[in-house]
Amino acid sequence: MYVVIVGAGEVGSTIAAGLAGTHEVAVIDIDGQRVEQLMYETDVLGVEGDGADIETLEDANIRKADILIASTDDDETNIVTCGTANTVTDVFTISRVKSAKFLRTWQHSERAFGVDHMVATNLLTAETISRVVGMPAAQDVDTFADGVVQMAEFEIPADSPIAGQTVREADRYESLTFAALIRKDDVVIPTGETELCPGDDVVVIGSPESVQTFASEIAPAIDGVRNVLVVGGSDIGYHTARLLQDRGLTPRLIERDHDRARELAEELPKTTVLESDATDREFLEREHVEDVDIVVAALDNDEKNLLASLLAKRLGAERAVAVVDSGEYVKLFEAVGIDVAVNPREATAEEITRFTREQHAENIAIIESDRAEVLEIEIDSDSELVDRPIRESVRDLPEGVVIGAITRDGDLVIPRGDTVIERGDHVVVFVDTDVLEAASNKL
Amino acid sequence: MSVRVDWRQSVAFTGTVIKYLAFAMLIPLAVSVVYGEDIVTFLASIGITVAVGIALERLDDDTQLGPREALLLVALAWAAVAIIGSIPYLIAGYNTESTLRYPINALFESTSGFTTTGATVLGEISLDRHSHAILMWRQLTQWLGGMGIIVLMVAILPEAAVNGAQLIDSEAPGPELQKLTPKIAETARLLWLFYLGFTLLLVALLLGLHYAGLAPNMNVYNAIAHGFSTLPTGGFSPQAESIGAFSPAVQWVVIPFILVAGTNFALFFFLLRDEFAAVFEDREFQAYIGANAGLAVILWGLLFSGSAPQLAIGGVTEGAMENALRQATFQVASLLNSTGYATSNFAQWDQTAKAVLLFAMFVGGSAGSTGGGVKIVRWLVVLKGIRRQLFTTAHPSAVKPVRLGGRVVDEDVVQAIYGFTLLYFLLLGLATVLLSLDAGRVGLELTVFEALSASLATIGNIGPGFGFLGPFGSYLAFPSTSKLLMIFLMWIGRLEIIPVFVIFTGAFWNE
């Protein structure tokens, strides 16, 4: 496939690096130095220029392209770039936007602005946070097959009742599959005898109810979340509060800027907006931060997020979720006491990767900084799985692939050894990144 | 360019308004021709009106009004039409026994008419004592004042449309101007069209009842006269017994029109555009209907269980299902939005029932309606503001906008509403004291309750009060000084205090 990426910022470069191995990639950026640097680091064609200029696009050979990804930092530029490309070719266009207002317009009318797919980063991040808040023990939660299937990743706490049990002992749930364990940095595909150690991350796939039950089993201390404190009225903070209040919660949101606080208070009727500095200890004590179940740090700066989360936890907040803009900090944040670090770029990459898969995946979740992926695939007649019982077909699949759940006509089917997968079924599979290529071809 | 207020402009424009008032006098002139009485009165009145109007108009020929001139114009115009409106009363009353032969009484009656108050100083309301034409003029003043003479000017005069938004904002009831169309003249025209439409519909229905035999005394004259005073929430009637003079069928028909008069007219615009949600989700409308229904049900229960004696007007309500419901609904609707019609002498009811009515008088109509009083929307904002105050006392850093049905109310508007409400009650209290003192000076027997009701009925443009100021009573007994005070209250009450008070401040006249 031939992919043109406009914007060689962090997101653009990450996507380019991810795709360069298997696809032809051209990268356009207005900054000549950045283009040059990227060309040395990654095997891509670099073009210096304005992506919204048709001549620049022609230089990147847009007529040959299958996909155009506009991922500059400027929403309007991205949208105009997609529109411009559409004047000469019917390339599939993906635009990254920060503001959700363009997404709303785009959702109203198919292919508005000449954009085939729109990825709203801030909204995606907020959605991820709101899922994590809904299941506080989980580090990552994703839904598949229109919400029929849920995937969640949990870290097993030392005092968990299932710590030390084998998978066979722990798996008491009809509709739940233990897809994988992530131990240290390795992906372990569990068998019935695999022991669950404290500190392991376990990835489960199943019905939302069973995942929820499992979540309360694994960490009984963390019950339903009621009291949420969002720190920072950034766009991500705003969307997080909005999604939470839509779920019936009454979150509190701290914003230090007077005008922004007023604006947020006007937009969020069910949220209590507090105008203060989140690192003001006295203020946090006065607002009884010790009763907070989960604090979400969504300030516009990673360091401040770290500080605010740690302070809130020190004052007694139960759990902390922080937005981390730089991908390399995710591990570090989680090491020093942040329970879940959410990286906006990861959410964006998940979305964009969906469309660059050779085998078109319906949905995708990236586990632990791309150590593994969970894919939702619609089965066609070319698949190895079709019309065979799973027991037989898994022998032809590479090591590191686990079939987590199947949906047939919107209903959940629990995969057993003798389940026969039919054409049109949606299969949610866990795939180790090492065998992704091999697996993709067979599924 | 001078920053000072160019009062000549405002006065000249007031002249234009007066000139157009002469056209309105053609209606009573027509009535006088039909009945053959007071023809000279109205011919003379028209002559004087046109002369005064043209004379004032000559003061300045620049019609480009500035914002401060516009404020001055509104206050002046309302004072001027009230004065001009008293001319027919004076001429007709000359050399007769009419109480309106005295200028202060005539001015009181005229102000009460234009401001849609409905308080009267007539000694005897009867077509035997006054001509059909004079009593029709009394009705017509209410109709002109209801939707607003300035709104009407903006609707018909292109030169008034230049600063139309400012003009209408100072005149129209409610905290904020609601523009329905891009052009303000179009909005003004629409408002008057709705107003005219509802008036014609009411007149037609009343006549229909008459010809169907359900309302023997509701003849063409009475139908038009009551059409003129229902939609502006006026309350005048050429009948001494008000709506009580007519059959229950008439009373039931009038009730929904009283309710319409107290509704924000912008809502009918939304209805016309099929935006039903905008109407039924409007908080003020919900509260308005809720307050009417709630108070009516309470009063119904009270009247049914014997809160009212048997009355000559109003009849027996104890144990009488339909009559108790009708009296309760009518009186609540009429006093809540400041109309002032009556079908029962509620001044004779017991204290509990009167307390319900007094509560209704404090509520007021909706913003953008023809009703008076504090207005529902202001109450809602004040109550929500108090709730916010309590919340922020517990959480000092909380930022909480005041919301009305999902929409955020601007902080400036909240402040203005606090200011207005405070001023309203301050004046109400002050006027109560002054009326009591003045009554004591001349030896008039006036209880504090009556004084309060008089001051509430005039500043809120309601009309009837309690005691001897009841629905079939008269304000005639007050001394002239008290009447002047009440004329002032009606004037500032109609324009919602602030736009009038501002012209008495130094800051208004200086740079």
What this model shows, in words?
The complex is a heterodimer of chains A (about 450) and B (about 500). Chain A has about 450 residues and is α/β, with parallel strands linked by helices. Chain A folds into four domains: about 1-115, Rossmann fold (3-Layer(aba) Sandwich), CATH 3.40.50; about 140-220, 2-Layer Sandwich (Alpha-Beta Plaits), CATH 3.30.70.1450; about 230-340, Rossmann fold (3-Layer(aba) Sandwich), CATH 3.40.50.720; about 350-440, Alpha-Beta Plaits (2-Layer Sandwich), CATH 3.30.70.1450. Helix content of chain A is about 35%, strand content about 25%. Chain A has 16 helices and 22 strands. In chain A, the strands form four sheets. A six-stranded parallel beta sheet of chain A has the order 3-2-1-4-5-6, with helices on both faces. A six-stranded parallel beta sheet of chain A has the order 14-13-12-15-16-17, with helices on both faces. In chain A, strands 7-8-11-9-10 form a five-stranded antiparallel beta sheet. The radius of gyration of chain A is 22 Å and the shape is globular. Chain A starts with a strand and ends with a helix. The model of chain A has no long low-confidence stretch (mean pLDDT about 85). Chain B is mainly alpha-helical and about 500 residues long. Helices cover about 65% and strands about 0% of the residues of chain B. Chain B contains 24 helices and three strands. Chain B has helices spanning about 5-25, 25-35, 40-55, 65-85, 85-95, 105-115, 130-145, 150-155, 160, 165-170, 185-210, 220-230, 250-260, 265-270, 275-280, 285-305, 320-335, 350-365, 375-395, 410-440, 450-460, 480-495, 500, 505-510; strands at about 400, 400-405, 405-410. A two-stranded antiparallel sheet of chain B has the order 2-3. In chain B, strand 2 (about 400-405) and strand 3 (about 405-410) form a beta hairpin. Chain B is globular and about 55 Å long. The model of chain B has no long low-confidence stretch (mean pLDDT about 90). Classes of the chains: A alpha/beta (about 450), B mainly alpha (about 500). The interface of A and B includes residues 264, 266 and 269 of A.
